[in-house]
């Protein structure tokens, strides 16, 4: 292949990886592989300046610009950082800065600030007169997306500054991150709802910041660290002191930030922080070194993509080679089959690794794993172990490729593949032991019915003893039954019974969540409960009516309908009701309710000025009306805001359905 062909190929591939990483928030390659490809491209381009192209990914900042946001130009471009995986190259960079700045002081280097490189998504905040006025993403470096509303929900970001001495107008840049705990919770929820998982907290933070629903953004628990201050009236002439000042105004500035003035100090900082970062509550992917003096920064200047006065040192994940003992296939509570590599135990980043998820059939195939293969396992300090490759040279002669099971390893039912997805499912929902036990465990869980005393092990024990075959059986347990079981003493028996009793007062939305309806996680359950108010309404709703509830899509609607269409599920619901569980939300204040809209089916469309769509939907319900998702002959009227789609308008016209605006609607309610 000629250099020109290779350059074209690399540019195309890097553009594709950029889109997946910055826009879809779902990377297709490891950072290391991406960075190596980029370095190869940069090298080829410098050797062949005749093939240069200003649009090459090597000259541009990867763009996160997304549809649906307003774009705002940055006062100063937001750039990337040059990076390296080698300590020697950091040392070389420091020497180069010294040379370029004409620093001849021998052992002492120009002052360098070392910081954590937080692994999130960059943000630029503008403050005027001590108040936050705008928050913009990096975008393509020149302009970014205005995400002010979402950023305002992040509690550690000051909306109004503390202290004094801040410039009347300034910009501060930082990183929005999703702490490990919040990331794990989010992925657990997504796994349960069978939604694709976020690959890492960076992608989760970036995805969350671009959501259209600020209430959901707030719930996810983002955080932010700041590392760069820009203004015409800065408090100090150096980076370090400016950041200390920003901290006094209320910004979160990491206290790992360190001022150094020798290469030796920088090297030991790298060794120390590579350990310490494992204790941090947020993900980091390296360190950033910056020349401290602003005057020296100015003298060093910028390339088209990054400042010359800063460099990122990236941590590489630790890797080991170990033997595959066997692949097990595990059945989740929603029936999804997960292949798991069971390994010869190996020490990686301080922990012993014995198992690593292979996620799905596609991944097993892409890796090309054979029996007893030697596998490469990677684990960054805090990251779950991951199989990244196979040592094919070490393969035993005659070893067979790992075959995905065709039948459920537990109940033997033929597996089915979800169309368009990589997952295989055991369809025997109501007869497959791990699925049933999984649902029992979910039911008693802390976020669901919180039945104390029934942990993971006890759920299986109660099921196998025939005492609890489904969730309703928790309420007919007797102390005498429980005490017969070897592993449950009288004290635990008592706790289980009390826990079940207490769960009768758990609110209706959590009951809906506890049922294990596919795709119905905590948030969706709340929406369903709020949109229906009681179990009978929920059970009786049509697809159209369900879809009219905010954030309920056709996939969830179908899952709800299918769940309640199963006779045994309806029986369970009836039993739960008999035992006295909460099957409705508490009545609302009578004064707020009316039957002004009784018998009316209303479709909401467009964007409103005076209330949110959600509020209008609630108003309709409170006044006895019904929300519907699509216009038909049965629609009483369309409540239309701005930007109502022309197709909908046409349909309403052709069916003779009246279209009214929000002012008229609000008048109707006061008549
Ligand atoms: N895996 C993939 O397919 C893929 C695709 C595209 C990019 N990437 C990764 O992303 C990198 C390029 O992304 P990038 O341009 O955002 O660069 P980057 O993430 O490597 O570094 C620049 C960013 O670091 C952040 N940062 C965190 N802490 C900081 C601190 N203390 N000071 C200054 N900045 C700090 C800022 O947001 C800044 O924009 C690549 O090197 C690659 O590793 C991976
Ligand atoms: Zn099964």
TrEMBL record:
Binding site for NAD(+): 31-35, 80-81, 115, 138, 175, 290, 314
Pfam family, one: HHH_2
Gene3D superfamilies: 5' to 3' exonuclease, C-terminal subdomain, 6.20.10.30, BRCT domain, DNA ligase/mRNA capping enzyme, Helix hairpin bin, Nucleic acid-binding proteins
Catalysed reaction, written as an equation: NAD(+) + (deoxyribonucleotide)n-3'-hydroxyl + 5'-phospho-(deoxyribonucleotide)m = (deoxyribonucleotide)n+m + AMP + beta-nicotinamide D-nucleotide
Cofactor(s) it depends on: Mg(2+); Mn(2+)
Residue stretches in coiled coil: none
Keywords linked to the UniProt accession: DNA damage, DNA repair, DNA replication, Ligase, Magnesium, Manganese, Metal-binding, NAD, Zinc
Domain BRCT: 592-671
Enzyme class per UniProt: ligase
Documented EC number(s): 6.5.1.2
Family membership: Belongs to the NAD-dependent DNA ligase family. LigA subfamily.
Entry function: DNA ligase that catalyzes the formation of phosphodiester linkages between 5'-phosphoryl and 3'-hydroxyl groups in double-stranded DNA using NAD as a coenzyme and as the energy source for the reaction. It is essential for DNA replication and repair of damaged DNA.
Name of protein: DNA ligase
Organism placement in taxonomy: Bacteria, Pseudomonadati, Bacteroidota, Bacteroidia, Bacteroidales
Gene this chain is encoded by: ligA
